[in-house]
Design a protein that fits this description.
There is one protein chain. The chain is built from no helices and eleven strands. By secondary structure, the chain is an all-beta fold. The strands form three sheets. Strands 1, 3, 4, 5, 7 and 11 form a six-stranded antiparallel β-sheet that branches. It has a three-stranded antiparallel β-sheet with strand order 8-9-10, with no helix packed on it. Strands 2-6 form a two-stranded antiparallel sheet. The protein is elongated and about 50 Å long. The chain starts with 14 loop residues before the first strand and ends with a strand.
Length: about 130
């Protein structure tokens, strides 16, 4: 589809949906298995779902998922939830989507979850954010 630009800010002129591939942004070089991740973009609003399985790893770097289909504009405008995970944290999970780098980090009990904690675990996340 082609975009039909409009000078009226109240006219929807940008809609897109597709698949995307989450990657390891932690610097550990992990090969994360993508079980089917999708996105929908309506104007500046992006909604992503990701479903990944972590490989066997003892790497203690903080989990950082990258490869988002669009750059995040503002950290405070993001929201997300974990739909399912094999990982059982000691405390509730919170998600943090970084600006410009568009990497998702996972926190539990006030600390970043490590790659080792997600070793062999599957995690499904839904998040929404605004792009530039």
């Amino acid at each position: 589809a082609t975009q039909s630009a409009s000078s009226d800010a109240n006219t929807l002129d940008d809609y897109e949906e597709g698949n995307w591939t989450p990657t390891d942004g932690s610097g550990a070089g992990l090969s994360i298995t993508n079980n089917g991740s999708k996105y929908t973009k309506v104007g500046r609003l992006v909604v992503v779902t990701l479903d990944v399985t972590y490989p066997v790893t003892a790497n203690t770097s903080a989990v950082s998922l990258a490869g988002f289909p669009f750059v995040s504009a503002l950290l405070s405008d993001s929201a997300g939830s974990v739909a399912y995970t094999d990982y059982v944290p000691a405390a509730p999970i919170f998600l943090q989507l970084g600006t410009s780098t568009s990497t998702l980090r996972i926190l539990s009990a006030g600390a970043f979850v490590t790659n080792a904690a997600l070793s062999t675990n599957r995690i499904q996340i839904t998040a929404s954010y605004f792009t530039t």
